[in-house]
Each structure stands twice: as structure tokens, then as C-alpha cells.
Amino acid sequence: MVETITISCRSRRDALCALMAEYFRLEGCVDVRADAPGYLPPEKIVGSLRDHAPALTCRRNDSRGTAVLVDTLLVEGGAMEIGEVVSRLQLFSSAAQAIDGELHLVVPERVGGCNGEELARALLRRLGLRANRIWAL
Asked: What confidence tens digit (pLDDT) does each residue in 13-49 have?
């Protein structure tokens, strides 16, 4: 059976958060919290300089209950100022490593005429960070 879900969103970021929340829910993840209609918002992660809440958090339904942190990158409606983007990436990457979890990033397919995934990978390389998966949507 195919389930159709219609969600009204204010921005591209909201729509992507809703899409990813549904994806992880349907994949069997538990404790899905998302900055999207119908979900509890993710909790803020406390950093040494700044605190940020990712776009989505959940736990895989595996033996470890692997934590997954998901954030949007360079998406309309999300963090766009480079200092904020870098701060979020550093905090979420560090948090994912500390809990032996996963970091996923959601980027637009195209950003200013460039491939969004390539741009995200270049930024991560430049910062010495890594993500488990980059979703170009």
C-alpha cells in the first residue's frame, strides 16, 4: 500500500525537514524529532561557543540504537551566513563522533549554479569534518 502525506511548509528547509522525517520514520527509526509539522522539535546541542538544534534527530532501530543527526546546508529558510554554517557543521560533527552516531546533511541539488553535494563535500574537507551521508534534493 502506498501512503500519501501532504504537508504545508513555509520554506524549502521546512519541506526538506518534513521529507527527511518521513523517510527516517518509514525506515523504522525511532524517537524521530524534526523541525517539521507533526513532530516534536529536536533538542539543542550545547557547544562551547554556541548552541544549535539540528533539523532532525532520530535513532536507528539497530542493536546500538545509533543516533542520527540531520541538518540542512545552504537551504533557503536555514542558516546561510558562513559563520553560522561553520558553527553548526563543527558542533554536529563533533556531537555525532562523541556519541558514535551519524551525521547526515541535506543540500539543494544546485547552489548558485554549482553542484550542491560537491559544494558540501568541499566545505567539509576544508573544515576537516566528515558526514556519513549527503542528501542532494
From this structure: 889 999 999 999 999 999 999 999 899 999 999 998 8
CB atoms within 10 A of CB 37: 13
One-letter amino acid of 100: D
Select from 98, 49, 48, 94 the least CA-distant residue to 71. 94
R_g of the chain computed on alpha carbons: 14
What is the full DSSP assignment across the chain? ---------SSHHHHHHHHHHHHHHHTT-EEEEESSTTSPPPPPBP-SS--B--SEEEE-SSTT--EEEEEE-S-TTS--SHHHHHHHHHHHHHHHHHTT-EEEEEE-SEETTEEHHHHHHHHHHHHT---SEEEE-
Q: Nearest Cα to 75, choosing from 6, 16, 9, 7?
A: 16
Which amino acid type is present at position 46? V
